[in-house]
Amino acid sequence: MQRSSNAKTGNDLLDAMPPGSVERLTPHLEPFALVLTKPVDPVEHVYFPIAGMISVVATMANGAAIEVGMIGREGMYSVSAILSDNLPFQSAMVQLPGHALRLRTRLLRQEMQAEAVLQKLLLRYTQATLNAVAQLAACNRLHLLEQRCARWLLTFHDRAAVDTFPMTHEFLAMMLGVNRPGVSLAAHSLQENGLITYSHGNGCLRMLSRHPGRILSAIRHLERDLFRAPSIVRRNDGNRAAIRIERSSREGWPRSIWGR
To answer: I want to staple 102 with a disulfide (CB 3.0 to 4.6 A). Which of 45, 113, 140, 220 is the partner?
Structure first.
């Protein structure tokens, strides 16, 4: 793939790499289509989403599954390629269609060995990913289903960069590791409070508001003493406040991890 070393790819992690590494790796980047629900094979390649999303899912012996990671244009799949030759225990599937750039894993590892700055960058990305997994485990244990559902939708919305996206209650239930009726009740609560709309006809969900007051009011009717994780990050988007629940410090990745 021919590209100027100064050109932006649209993937934050790729664009944060040192110029020398970008110049050497760019000819080996291949376009890759992210097709909804299709698996993403980490055997020979790593993937850098430009648009769309990859979901990392852990599956138990009895077939039960739960999402343990979500990768959009801020990162790459899989971090296991950074650490060793071993394949990840988890599987990955496309959660939102789009496109990515892929790179042979051996080329990334070779470049890491040759470029200390790149190695440091990717290890910091790995640390941030581990932090996100730890926070997710805490949220899954300590939060109500409605809170978990709101957190998941906000994280998804951060990476989707669109307000309307395909989503079924069955799929969301699988991502959260719960039964479908529970997700339906949680989604109904969010819809009643004017946060989302959902169309059963075409299976599309639309985000209407990210206002923290509305999000909390949708949950507090079930639990007055709301548990609030320290990773809730608020920011001001002009005339509205946006709330990001555990973007795993990803709100600050370009500054704290990539030094930008």
So the answer is: 45
Tokens of 59: 């599956």
Q: Where are the domains of the chain?
A: 12-138, 144-228
Identify which of 67, 256, 88 has the alpha carbon closest to the alpha carbon of residue 156. 67
> Can you read off the two tokens belonging to residue 75?
């990162």
30-34/240-245 β-pairing:
unpaired
Residue with tokens 């790149």: 118
Is residue 97 within 8 Å of 34, Cβ to Cβ? yes
Predicted TM-score of the model (pTM)? 0.75
What tens-digit pLDDT sequence spans the chain (260 residues)?
A: 555 556 789 999 999 999 999 999 999 999 999 998 899 988 899 999 999 999 998 888 888 888 888 999 999 998 988 987 767 778 899 988 999 999 999 999 999 999 999 999 999 999 999 988 888 888 888 888 888 888 888 888 888 777 888 788 888 888 888 888 888 888 888 888 788 887 776 678 887 766 655 555 554 543 433 334 333 333 333 333 222 323 333 333 333 333 33
CA distance 101 to 47: 6
CATH superfamily of 12-138: Jelly Rolls (2.60.120.10)
Determine the Cα–Cα distance for residues 86 and 163; give it in Å rounded to an integer. Answer: 37
Q: At what angle do helices 212-220 and 145-160 cross, to 10 degrees?
A: 160
**CATH assignment of 144-228?**
1.10.10.10
Q: Do 64 and 15 meet the contact criterion of CB atoms below 8 Å apart?
A: no
Q: Which residue is it, tokens 């999402």?
A: 67
Task: Find where tokens 């030759």 sit.
Answer: 85
